[in-house]
Design brief:
Blueprint (H helix, E strand, L loop, with lengths): L20 E5 L3 E3 L2 E10 L3 E8 L5 E7 L11 H9 E2 L8 E6 L9 E8 L4 E4 L7 E6 L4 E8 L2 E9 L5 E14 L2 E12 L2 E12 L3
Antiparallel strand pairs: 1-3, 2-3, 3-4, 4-5, 6-7, 7-8, 8-9, 10-11, 11-12, 12-13, 13-14, 14-15
Length: about 210
């Protein structure tokens, strides 16, 4: 062919993608002497943004983002459940803190309990990553102990946080139980650590060979 015909092609405009958002706002409630309210936004059914505001001033007191939306998001008593499960004095300083429990729905090792401690001097909540875990096992107000646990592929741990009267961690007991494959033999380990100010001051390990029938 000696003739080449060129046709003009009109490009379709690129559509703007706007994620579906379902927002929920709670009734006001009193928290540490301040009237507050929750704002939760579920985006495209896949992630959630959680905010806590001062009711009178709209000051942001807490913001949390997670990829696992709760299963009961559409329930009428959703915020009642949030407050009943989440508002507790975690470090025993006399102020109510916030636990945000995120369950992945698959494996326990993917679950997480996020801890936000109330800073009464600044009037807001700050993340306490050193207290986060897969589970909160016990909040022992009498003995000022917080017990958490984690689950891994080949083991578990249990951590006991001991608090002083002003809400600071005095020391931590950490118990671990796990196994490691060395060549063709599984070795089971049990360890204990006592941690003070981030330093291990006492440690012991017990190991046993696991024999498979």
């Amino acid at each position: 062919m000696n003739e080449i015909t060129t046709d003009s092609v009109t490009k379709s405009p690129v559509p703007e993608i706007i994620a579906d958002t379902l927002a929920k706002i709670s009734s006001p409630f009193i928290l540490n002497g301040t009237k507050c309210y929750w704002e939760h936004k579920l985006i495209s059914g896949e992630e959630i943004i959680i905010k806590l505001f001062d009711y009178k001033t709209d000051k942001l007191l807490l913001k949390h983002h997670d990829i696992y939306p709760p299963l009961n998001y559409n329930a009428k008593n959703y915020f009642d459940n949030i407050n009943n499960e989440s508002l507790v004095d975690v470090n025993f300083d006399g102020y109510t803190d916030i636990l945000l429990k995120i369950y992945s729905g698959s494996m326990a090792m993917n679950d997480r309990v996020y801890v936000y401690l109330f800073n009464h001097k600044e009037g807001k909540y700050t993340s306490a990553e050193y207290l986060e875990a897969n589970r909160i096992e016990l909040i022992d107000k009498k003995n000022r102990k917080l017990i958490t646990s984690n689950e891994y592929r080949y083991g578990t741990d249990s951590i006991i946080h001991h608090f002083d009267k002003v809400g600071k961690v005095e020391f931590t007991d950490e118990f671990s139980h796990y196994r490691i494959l060395e060549d063709t033999t599984w070795i089971e380990y049990k360890t204990y650590k006592k941690i003070v100010n981030g330093e291990t001051i006492n440690e012991r390990t017990q190991s046993d060979t696991i024999k498979w029938e």
